[in-house]
Amino acid sequence: MINGAHTIIHAADPEAAREFFRDVLGLAHVDAGHGWLIFRSPPAELAVHPAEGPDSGRCELYLMCDDLTATVEELRAKGVEFTGDVTRERWGLRTTLIVPGAGPIGLYQPTHEIAHSIE
Length: 119
Prior knowledge:
Blueprint: H1 14-24, E1 29-31, E2 37-39, E3 62-64, H2 68-77, E4 87-89, E5 92-99, E6 103-110
Parallel strand pairs: 3-6
Antiparallel strand pairs: 1-2, 4-5, 5-6
């Protein structure tokens, strides 16, 4: 049945966003033709949060890491821009980074059991 998930980021400058995922984050990719890069995502999980009104149906993307402090330092050294400080939530540590040409996405270190580690 379901064998994967395909995430889409809409970007005003898709080439800048593709360069970020390829060159800064170093994600493996294939060229689907004409420079249209499709990136291999890290293991993923999906959460469903309650929402009403305009937030109902809204989707968010968070990249996950094991050590948020070290990851933020490494990405800052590569010129990645962050929109704020690291905050502690009941479910982990989080921050937001800017994908050039596309906008903000989340980055977090979970403190809960992660779904992609279960069989």
